[in-house]
Design goal:
The complex is a heterodimer of chains A (67) and B (493). Chain A is mainly alpha-helical and 67 residues long. Chain A is built from 3 helices and no strands. Chain A is 61% helix and 0% strand. By secondary structure, chain B is an all-alpha fold. Among the domains of chain B are: 164 residues; 127 residues. The chains are: A mainly alpha (67), B mainly alpha (493).
Chain lengths: 67, 493
Amino acid sequence: MDISTFQAYAYFFFTAFMVVVLYSYIYHLYSSQWKGKRDYEKYGDLALHDEIDDHPIEKISENDEKK
Amino acid sequence: MENRPLEYDYTVAKMFMLTTVLLGIVGMLVGVILAWEMAFPAVNTIAGSGLAEYTNFSRLRPLHTDAVIFGFTFSGIWATWYYVGQRVLKVSMAESKFLMFLGKLHFGLYLLVVVSVVVSLLLGITTSKEYAEFEWPIDIAVVVVWVIWGMSIFGLIGIRREKSLYISIWYYIATFLGIAMLYLFNNMEIPTYFASGGIGAWYHSVSMYSGTNDALVQWWYGHNAVAFGFTVPIVAMIYYFLPKESGQAVYSYKLSLLAFWGLMFVYLWAGGHHLLFSTVPDWMQTMGSVFSVVLILPSWGSAINMLLTMKGEWQQVAASPLIKFMILASTFYMFSTLEGPIQAIKSVNALAHFTDWIVGHVHDGVLGWVAFMIMAALFHMAPRVFKREIYSKSLMNTQFWIQTLGVVLYFTSMWIAGITQGMMWRAHDEFGNLAYSFIDTVAVLHPYFTIRAVGGTLYLLGMFLFAYNMYKTMTSGRRVEESELQSASPMGA
């Protein structure tokens, strides 16, 4: 196989791979929400409830760190 | 024992707010002088022929670009970082003496760098690499400043109360990592005095790269300085300030994440579009074009997310000049991220390359998007850091319209000038002789150069209104209670 043929195959498969990665990430973001694992939209509140005495959206605690 | 409730500490944010305003005025003032020099060359020697060395176009040009990029924009990035960082991580700088010390050291060293840059560029000491003109001693100081900022970012993240990092924090981290990598690699240079055993000036250096490699590294740096200086941190700002000011959570957090990773992956490959039709390998040029076009997607992902954040709340755009600034910034972001890819298409670039259309593109991005967003961020921060309402809403409105008119005059005149230039350069008769000489184009472009200078002057006028409004806010705005600062910023008439 000459170098340009190899480049063409590599280009095709790399592009296909990146498309799969992209769509998998979108699927992951939505499926996490459906399955109740994680609702990403709640993090939007991080900007709105940002006073120092506001309750954290997800608190850092020792229990969390041990998980 | 003192038992005050814990509060955010904006000491360092305030310091950087000051340099944002000051260096913004300096950078734009020099820009306006340059614009008038282009339209009327006699301005080059306006201070007399004895001082012409310091007032001519070529001496001032790097001062303009560097003051706006590394002065105004980076001060704005740091002012907002030392504000937003604390708030979304729910931790105060006052809680760590070490982080507070780092913050102040960051500002102090940064001021030293600013002074050395201004002095060295005015003296004509430069490496001649665009946007990387600083000689090696300053480069080392820049790296130290950068490392201190990094320690400050990760230090604050290390002591946070909020487990999740808000999307803006991701963008600030990306700014830190991106510029660190770009700056180091592009500024690899050899101090000639030490390498040659004492020949020449001690501060002089030459790049480690040469020829096409130098061009490639330079434009990988140059374009990504736009990415990680003018895009990524400004997106960080709008993701925080627009939701906060409007009281509306970001329309789709998922889209913000997707756009983030898209931008990170795509942007780094686009720099080759600066070198179309040059000696770099053809596949690299094509890659630069293709990635530039793909870049529309993540850019518009963020921009549309911002516009949709205003869904059902569009009356705020009419009511609040602060929201106006941010919505116009977001719109200009969409506009310039569409214009850039169009210019990167090879057939368009054949016409546009080296013309004023490129200059127009840079300025609709920087004046319309970057500067509008930074000023909006500072307007939002002012009542919270000074505990006073914004001095004058009507002054803000006036500033908004004067500067919008300025940007429009700037980019429309440069579009016409650029396309005219491109067409005249390539025009030829039936024997292939060029139809015009260079000076023919200069004569035709004169009115557009004048219009550009007027546009720039209007924008600078707006900067003075901004500085005055900020100063009055700080010194004589009505004092406000914490309860007035929840979302929309309080403004005086």
